[in-house]
Design brief:
Layout (H helix, E strand, L loop, with lengths): L8 H4 L10 E3 H4 L19 E3 H18 L1
Antiparallel strand pairs: 1-2
Length: 70
């Protein structure tokens, strides 16, 4: 199995197209766990930002997992 990191050439080759969906900071939104910056201190201030829709889907999935396992 190939493991990718955010700095892998395969990941960096994926084009990014702005979709206009707002970014949210999961630190402020709450409900999801997160760890320390993954690669370097340069990402310290923004590594917890995600698209709002992605945040909602992760939040729903985490609540679903808690119901199934608990």
């Amino acid at each position: 199995m190939t493991r990718f990191t955010p700095s892998s050439a395969e990941v960096l080759a994926v084009p990014i197209v702005e979709c206009g969906e707002p970014l949210v900071d999961i630190r402020r939104m709450g409900g999801l766990e997160y760890g320390p910056p993954p690669e370097c201190l340069a990402t310290l201030s923004d590594y917890t930002f995600a698209r709002h829709g992605t945040y909602l889907r992760l939040l729903r999935r985490s609540h679903f997992s808690l119901r199934v396992s608990g």
